[in-house]
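User: Could you check the structure of this?
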Amino acid sequence: MPAPHGFDFAVRADGTVAVSHHRAVVTLLRGERAKRFLDEVRAGDPQEVMARWTGNYRHGNERTARNHPRNAGR
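Assistant: Sure, the predicted structure tokens are below.
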């Protein structure tokens, strides 16, 4: 599976963290969640952390897998 890419984040003046994907804001984190997010970004791979926090960890092949004959009837 390819590594996530295209994510960025910005900390706003009020402490809110805006996470964007290809320049479009996809989530806003405030308070304790923003602090936990920033800690995780500093400790790990920022692209993977942002993909997980935004829920953008699927890569478009789910429909193909669902329609595969092996998965028919599920």
